[in-house]
């Protein structure tokens, strides 16, 4: 979307003007959400995004979009992917840098899924520093592995309708079958105990040092992510209004 209003469609113009009026009084915020899979980041980020007029930067989606749009960075990323290599940290930071120029990112951003390593955090800070900006808060969705395991491995879905159940929190009427059709339920492959175990190990190994890195900078807020979503939302609001 263009930052000058000339290129905005008339119907979008009103909503864009209303958005800018509502957002004008909001403080700038540059946030990082960190937490293991199932810790609730995905539930909270749209709420934070709307409340503070931030853009949501999901690095995986941004990479795919840059590749599809054949931007100079996207072309480089595609070359790496075609060779079966990981996309370099510099490229990802470059794509974040580009995204920050969009009007929707004028008030700041939420980063989710990046940085995953301390090296990435350092590169991100360097890039922000050149722009005269910095990370304002790192929201650490702290939760015990055992609670996560119960939360995630208890999820079962009815494949054709997408209805979801939880063995403890929202069980089907009859174990293992859909309430409506009586068809068997299945588990997503990411929701099994083995997959979760390896994802949690990777999180502890790579990403916990990132939390320590930002703790030293005094910007980390630890959230009680095992609490119900509404309570986590009010904790987030407390942290961000201080």
UniProtKB/TrEMBL annotation:
Gene3D superfamilies: P-loop containing nucleotide triphosphate hydrolases (3.40.50.300)
Enzyme Commission designation: 2.7.4.3
Keywords, in A-Z order: Kinase, Nucleotide-binding, Transferase
Adenylate kinase active site lid domain location: 155-190
Top-level EC class as recorded in UniProt: transferase
InterPro entries with a match to the protein in the record: Adenyl_kin_sub, Adenylat/UMP-CMP_kin, Adenylat_kinase_CS, Adenylate_kinase_lid-dom, P-loop_NTPase
Catalytic activity: AMP + ATP = 2 ADP
One protein family per Pfam: ADK
Family as reported in the entry's similarity comment: Belongs to the adenylate kinase family.
PANTHER family (alphabetical): NUCLEOTIDE KINASE
Role: Catalyzes the reversible transfer of the terminal phosphate group between ATP and AMP. Plays an important role in cellular energy homeostasis and in adenine nucleotide metabolism.
Designated name of the protein: adenylate kinase
